[in-house]
Structures are given as C-alpha cells and as structure tokens.
Amino acid sequence: MIYLKTEEEIVKMRAACDLVSRTLGEVASRIRPGVTTRELDNVAREFILDNGGHPACLGYHGFPGTLCIEVNETVVHGFPSGYTLREGDIVGTDCVVELDGYHGDSCYTFAVGEVDEKVLRLLEITKESLYKGISAAKGGHRIGDIANAVQTFCEHHGYSVVREMCGHGIGKSMHEDPEVPNYGRRGIGPVLRPGMLICIEPMINMGSKNIVIERDGWQCRTRDRKPSAHFEHTLLITPDEPEILTTFRYIEDALRANGGRII
Ligand code: MF3
Ligand code: CO
Known about the structure:
By secondary structure, the chain is of the alpha+beta class. It has helices at about 5-30, 35-50, 115-135, 145-155, 250-260, and strands at about 55, 65-70, 75, 90-100, 100-110, 160, 165-170, 175-180, 195-200, 205, 210-215, 220, 230, 235, 245. It has a five-stranded antiparallel β-sheet with strand order 8-7-9-14-15. It has one domain: Creatinase/methionine aminopeptidase superfamily (Creatine Amidinohydrolase, Alpha-Beta Complex). The longest helix is centred in the first third of the chain and has 24 residues, at about 5-30. Helix 3 packs antiparallel against helix 4 (about 145-155). Bound molecules: 2-amino-4-trifluoromethylsulfanyl-butyric acid (MF3) and cobalt (II) ion. The site of 2-amino-4-trifluoromethylsulfanyl-butyric acid has 11 residues, from strand 4 and strand 5.
C-alpha cells in the first residue's frame, strides 16, 4: 500500500527531514581520528531530543543505536561501539528522526582524515549515484528507472550493487511501500506519483556485491571485507523533478569548519 501524502503531511515531512539533516551536521562536526562511534551516537541522540524529535532507530526491533554506524566493510546496520575511528577509515552514519509523527531518513559516508584515493573514489561515485537515482525519480517514471540509473552508473565505474538492502517509502512509518532497489530494469515497478515520499539509498561495494549478516542478526558487512559506501536522501515525488527534503548542506558546512573532506 503506497500512501500519497497531503500538503499538511508534507510540511511535517519537511520538518523531520530538516532535523535529521541538522543532526548529521552535528555528527559531521565531530568526525576525526580518535573519536569513538558511541560518542557520535550520543551527539546524535542528544541533538534529536533537544530539538523535540525522537531517535527512530533506537529500539526499532531492538536496534541499539540512534545511528547505524558503517565503518569500512560494514554495509549497513552497524552498532555504535567503543571502536575508535582511525585515520584512513570511512564511516557511514545513517539516521532516522521522527518529529511530530513523521520520519526523515538520511545517510552520509565520511572520510576520516586522509583516506586512500581509491576509497575516496568509491565514496564519490556512490554519492553521485544517489543523484543519478534522484534525477530519474520524476513523476510518471517508475521505480525501475531509479534502480537502473543507480546500477548502470555504479557498475560502469567498476563497483557492485548490494542486492539484499533497498530504499523505501517513508512517512508515518520509517519503512513504507514501495521498495526502492538499487538495481533492476528500467520501466518496471510501481509508477512514481506526486505526493509519494521515498528514500533512495545506494549501498555500493568496492569488491563483490556479496554480504554477510553477523550472528546478532543486524550488522551487515561485505563478504570479501572490502569497503562499502552508503548515501541516502528522502525525497518528494512531484509532477517533474523531485524535491529533495533532506540536505547535506549542514554536513558540508561542518566539514568546511573542521577541515574534513567534503565528498
Ligand atoms: N536508514 C535505515 C534505512 O533506511 C534505517 C533503518 S536502521 C534500523 O532502512 F535500525 F532502524 F533498522
Ligand atoms: Co532508509
């Protein structure tokens, strides 16, 4: 069941998406070698609560963090922990905020200090693939058009697309229909209609597409332990170009201020 949102609901979605974007801006200001992923998680949780929101991942089917922490070979759903970030790591921080009954969802993968050129390239291409998917998400197009745009672009650059995890609809629930895969054929799947809200979130691997899920049932990493990158926006389908409700602007401002690398 795909729920089209009313104008009032869209106003609330914009607010939730702004809060999750600002939360990732706070996280960005703390990214450096020597910080633990638990410290990042605490910053995110406190910022969300201070701003009247609710950290939607925390406790979701038992998930133990406000952020999903994705260090190097971790694809998605990594736990915040005592792990100390090191020069050369990459770390994805995926966050969902609930505000006034509606959800905003976004993810950015950061370079920690100086990162290998080849890994930076993975980050750049993954981020660019998100915008390729967004460009394909026009009213009247289909989910398969998004999926194919992401896949074609990433595979052209020699990377592989994780199959098991997808983007999704979003609204009163964190995960709604439709599923938004990052691979597939053009012209198939549900039609994109104005008023739909979806998350596009390419999860792209340097090596093979295969993943394993740890025995905790959550933490997902590449099978070959090569790096994986992940970027995500929440967007509103309109009759033409989508409106991107989350933004990386706060992240970029923070990175400029603390000398971090903007992907
Ligand atoms: N951003 C993730 C997603 O798009 C959030 C789910 S993590 C969970 O699905 F812990 F909440 F499950
Ligand atoms: Co998501």
